Amino acid sequence: MATQTSSIAQNLERVRERIARACEQAGCSPDEITIVAVSKTFPPDLIRTAHDAGLRHFGENRVQEFETKHAQVKGFVDSIWHFIGHLQSNKVHRAVYLFDRIDSVDSVHLAEKLDSAALAADKRMPLLVEVRLSRESTKSGVAVEELPALVAAVKRWPCLELRGLMTIPPYFDDPEDARPYFRKLRELRDDVRQQLSASLPVLSMGMSHDFEVAIEEGATEIRVGTALFGERSKR
After folding, report:
1. Considering the chain, what is the average pLDDT of its residues?
2. Quick check: helix, strand or coil at residue 131?
């Protein structure tokens, strides 16, 4: 197991202290920051411990993996389950059934399939659009120049609720090097908001090693895995 379950509450306290310092620097309140606990690869008993510690938002990146956990965690009725990975078209219906929010929509095609699946499930699906701001071939996300068209399309579909934007910058040893990427997402959000009259209240950016910088640049939601659960086992 990646970490002793008894330490998760202590880890969460340290994360909250870091958030508080970043918010003081940014002039915002810690209450405005949502922690998404990245629980991918971790077992249900560790997720239960995190829930007991007070976490309510959890992120998983594989539909099939979460299906194996679902029966053991669906009793957490006050939890919100985020799909945070690249979603394949053939898994859209299962994702809509399993998750409360899809945080990685990157194409009109995927959004259209999500709307159809949500309609069939009689469900309104909140989502984030993932924006690709780096040239890394391993990164998913809509290209910057295609973002307005995707946002406009999502707004038209009745079963989708666009909540905001998400990005994952390249990894840098110095978190300050990620600042331009976080700033760019905020600027893109502001431009699209004005251009298309889209609210987009959520900016999901920043992870365990760089979320302070993300908060300073306007993040409202951060994804934290290692800082809560410890290092993942190598697969």
Report:
1. 93
2. strand
